[in-house]
Amino acid sequence: MQNIDSTFRYIRRLCVVVIIGAMALCLFTVYRSYDLVKSKNEKVYVLVNGKALEAYASERKDNLPVEAKDQVKIFHALFFNLPPDDKGIEATISRALYLADESAKRQYDDLKEGNYYSNIISSNINQTIRVDSVLLDMNTSPISFRCYAVQTLTRPTSILTRNLLTEGQLREVSRSENNAHGLLIERWNILENKDLTVNPR
To answer: What pTM was computed for the model?
Structure first.
């Protein structure tokens, strides 16, 4: 009877261990399957010039500093890269104004009233900009930024170089075709824009 009792306890313990092991294996399998499906859903393939490129999805907050800097650079490039052509100027400025609030529109109106764009066209000036750096304060909401850039005005007889310092804030909005990063520039202000050098051509 003692032998039967100890054998029964042994079999009971063995059954409990097997059941716990099977449950642990099932839970691990479900977890790994979910993890695999999740990682596969984060991968997308993008066609670029007929070639498939693999892309990964990520959280917005992970890429926010990169997107914010790129938004500021794109806006400044559109606002300050100006050909000596009225339709070209209108096209780039209208694209830039999708990325900012009325503060950028005010700057544009002021420049237009001061005949800035008319002078670019009549004097055959090609204006370009190179953004040196964008400083972000990610601890504020909306995000504050300062943009340091260099403007180059190529005239028929000379090349004028000017420094440009601007500041503003970035507020998150919904993404759209005209605003791919989903960030809107607010309270944009030109702090400094003075001549550095003039070189003859």
So the answer is: 0.70
